[in-house]
Design goal:
This protein is an all-alpha fold. It has a domain of 45 residues. The chain is 55% helix and 0% strand. Helix 1 packs antiparallel against helix 2. The longest helix is centred in the middle third of the chain and has 21 residues. The chain starts with 14 loop residues before the first helix and ends in a 16-residue tail after the last helix. The relative contact order is 0.19.
Length: 74
């Protein structure tokens, strides 16, 4: 049931998978912030969640990122 992306495998993850993972984490963070009644955090996290959703809609799932190197590598 846990659909988390193994972040150690980001070198082979597609761009779509990475954004999907971010969106999932934002959903969880939103719940935590809401439970803490941190209204500004909830708002900002939900804005980021919306942006992640927009990015997913703009990219076909089959599209593989042209840069498959781990973050921070040049």
């Amino acid at each position: 049931m846990d659909r988390r992306l193994d972040v150690s495998a980001t070198a082979v993850a597609t761009s779509w998978e990475r954004i999907s993972y971010i969106k999932q984490m934002l959903a969880e963070l939103s719940q935590v912030a809401r439970a803490e009644r941190a209204d500004l955090l909830v708002y900002l996290i939900e804005m980021a969640f919306t942006e992640a959703g927009d990015l997913l809609e703009a990219r076909p799932r089959q599209a593989i990122s042209s840069d498959t190197r781990p973050p921070g590598w040049r």
